[in-house]
Amino acid sequence: MEIVINHLTRMRRRRICVAGMDGSGRHWRPVLDSPAYGGGYEQLGRDLLACNGGPFELRRVVDLEWIEPRPMPPQVENVVFRPDRVKRLGRLPPERSWEMLEKAAEGSLRAVFGPELTAKSRTAAFLPADRGRASLGVLSPGEVELAEETGYKNKPEVRLRLTDPDLGFIAIKVNDLRLWKDDHRTPASGKIEQLQGRLDGCLISVGLTREFRGRHWLQVNNIFPRLPTNPI
């Protein structure tokens, strides 16, 4: 299976999450099966990043070759894969990558995830476990604002503020790997500043976290400035 990577996010303990679209615009999330997680999935390591000799980076075309689908709503995109079988097939030009994103983009968050997506507050939204149509998608958000903030327990956060047709104003956590330093705890302030004046007409990849206490929480996975602006 060939996919183009358009989701690349930080996770705790310097782990990453990766996903991409096939030629039809359908999303797939490669995951590692692990009996140690009680039937769950082992998180991917940074060794799988292209900068560390691995296969994954944004706009990279990869052939997962061997997969075993493991759909579990809302994470219907999950497929178990073997990293040693992944083939790197080059990197998609920015123009072609933008065309794929634009074609897949929806105008509202519920159009991506389903009508059961619920805003808990102005800073959080979720889907209940086992509900919803998807856990990955692309959004055309309209006017947005990117900001660094101090969150729970004084931890730094990066948030994208937008007004959604269904949920209203919401400031969503951003876990775009490029906007965080390698420790996954410190915002990459220089890159965030570079994006500040390039958000008009941007597209964003959005996703839902793994289940936590019966809920999958909304996050911004990656931000893509409108062409012809150079990609970050």
Task: Give an overview in words.
The protein has 232 residues and is mainly beta. The chain has two domains: 2-95, no CATH class; 105-224, Beta Barrel (OB fold (Dihydrolipoamide Acetyltransferase, E2P)), CATH 2.40.50. 10% of the residues lie in helices and 41% in strands. The chain is built from three helices and 17 strands. It has helices spanning 94-104, 109-113, 189-196, and strands at residues 2-11, 15-21, 27-33, 41-42, 44-45, 60-63, 67-69, 78-81, 87-91, 118-121, 124-128, 136-139, 144-150, 156-164, 168-173, 203-208, 215-224. Strands 1, 2, 3, 4, 5, 6, 7, 8 and 9 form a nine-stranded mixed β-sheet that branches. Strands 10-11-17-16-12 form a five-stranded antiparallel β-sheet. A hairpin with a 7-residue loop joins strand 3 (27-33) and strand 4 (41-42). The longest helix is centred in the middle third of the chain and has 11 residues, at 94-104. It is globular. The two termini are 27 Å apart. The model has no long low-confidence stretch (mean pLDDT 94).
